[in-house]
Amino acid sequence: MRIDLHAHSNASDGTDSPAELVAAAVAAGLDVVALTDHDTVAGHAEAARAVHALPDGARLTVVPGAELSCVVDGVSMHLLAYLFDPEEPRFAAERELVRTDRFRRGRAIVERCRELGADVSWEQVQRIAGAGSVGRPHIASALVEAGVVATVSDAFTAEWLANGGRADVRKHETDPIEAVRLVRAAGGVPVFAHPGAVKRGRTVPDGVIAELAAAGLAALEVDHTDHDEETRARLRGLAGELGLLVTGSSDYHGTRKTVRLGEHTTDPAVYEALLAQATGAKPIER
Ligand code: AMP
Ligand code: FE
Ligand code: FE
Ligand code: ZN
After folding, report:
1. Quick count: other Cβ atoms within 10 Å of Cβ 240?
2. Closest residue CA from atom 2 of ligand 1
3. Can you tell me whether residue 62 is helix, strand or coil?
4. Minimum-distance ligand to the CA of 152?
5. Distance between CA 1 and CA 248 in Å, rounded?
6. Can you tell me the distance from the alpha carbon of 197 to that of 133, in angstroms, rounded to the nearest whole number?
7. Mean of the per-residue pLDDT values for the chain?
8. Which of 34, 119, 145, 258 lies 20 to 30 A from 220 at CA?
9. Nearest of 123, 29, 79 to residue 217 by alpha carbon
């Protein structure tokens, strides 16, 4: 079983449509892929249609999910949520709040980029983002188009879009304790995404991770491209101490990042344990 529990479509900042993501997951030899767009479930329906339309012989399970933008003591962090009821009103309202504020903030970042001499526009960013939940990677793509930087990741520096960078503007983000409770109340399973991704900025201290565990966190995403071996070992130890499961996943973003689908995977026994905790939705199978 090859299980990848973190992937983005163009419903947020990935470049594959949900149907293309399903096809890419089959081609990558995955058995299970989770669709975890930032702050939105907009890709779920198309992914489900694509799974149901797979040809005979092709098999794939899609785990419907999302990746929630959170902040604690000024440190941004991402919370993966799996198999929650997308209709549960309190959690749906919180996702909508974050998603909507992404538009205000996207415009503000574009304005900052223009003040700093980059010839980018909101119309251009909207064209790049399409119907998707708009974010800094779309603006990074606009900066690449404008010839300001060479690659998307080159835009995530202090000069431009990195946390606290010259053109960074904060968006509304949820308190992670509140987010863990919202996910659980919607029958979902919360997992801390890339908790040791230092290249993205400050990370959350272990004390807060302990509080999240007490509030209902299920797992830490340990095997992730942004973690070196030492970080993985440390996080594995922490998960053991706190009674948390350990996942691995690619955080695939199509061509917007270099990581490949299935580059990191989750142990089947861990996947089963996560499924056993979910009551809000079922995996999508053919
Ligand atoms: P936003 O959700 O709009 O705040 O943008 C955050 C997203 O930007 C993350 O989900 C990543 O996809 C991307 N990102 C953050 N840091 C980096 C980085 N250093 N290099 C490339 N992409 C990044
Ligand atoms: Fe992203
Ligand atoms: Fe993330
Ligand atoms: Zn992600």
Report:
1. 10
2. 135
3. strand
4. 1
5. 13
6. 22
7. 97
8. 258
9. 79
Please state, in angstroms and rounded to a whole number, the distance separating the CA atoms of residues 193 and 251: 9
Distance 135 CA to ligand 1 centre (A): 8
Q: For tokens 């973003």, name the residue.
A: 253
- Which ligand ends up closest to the CA of 36? 4
Ligand 4 center to residue 5 CA distance, Å? Answer: 10
Which protein residues are within 6 Å of ligand 1, measured from CB? 13, 38, 69, 135-137, 152-153, 156, 199-200, 253
Residue-wise pLDDT for 99-113, tens only, equals 999 999 999 999 999
Q: Which ligand 1 atom sits closest to the C-alpha of 13?
A: 12
Q: Give the CA distances from residue 20 to residues 90, 145, 254, in Å, rounded to whole numbers and listed in that order.
A: 31, 23, 10
Number of H helices, E strands in the chain: 9, 8
Report pTM.
0.97
Point out the ligand nearest to the CA of residue 257: 1
User: Judging by beta carbons within 10 Å of its beta carbon (0-12, 13-18, 19+), is residue 185 exposed, middle or buried?
Assistant: middle
How far is ligand 2, taken at its centre, from the CA of residue 104, in Å?
18
pLDDT tens for 13-22 read 999 999 999 9
How many Å lie between the centroid of ligand 3 and the Cα of residue 54?
A: 28
In which band, very low, low, confident or very high, does the pLDDT at 286 lie, cut at 50, 70 and 90?
Answer: confident
Say if CB 112 and CB 125 are below 8 A apart: no
Contacts of 41 (CB under 8 A, 6+ apart): 64, 66, 86, 95
Do the Cβ atoms of 94 and 82 come closer than 8 Å? no
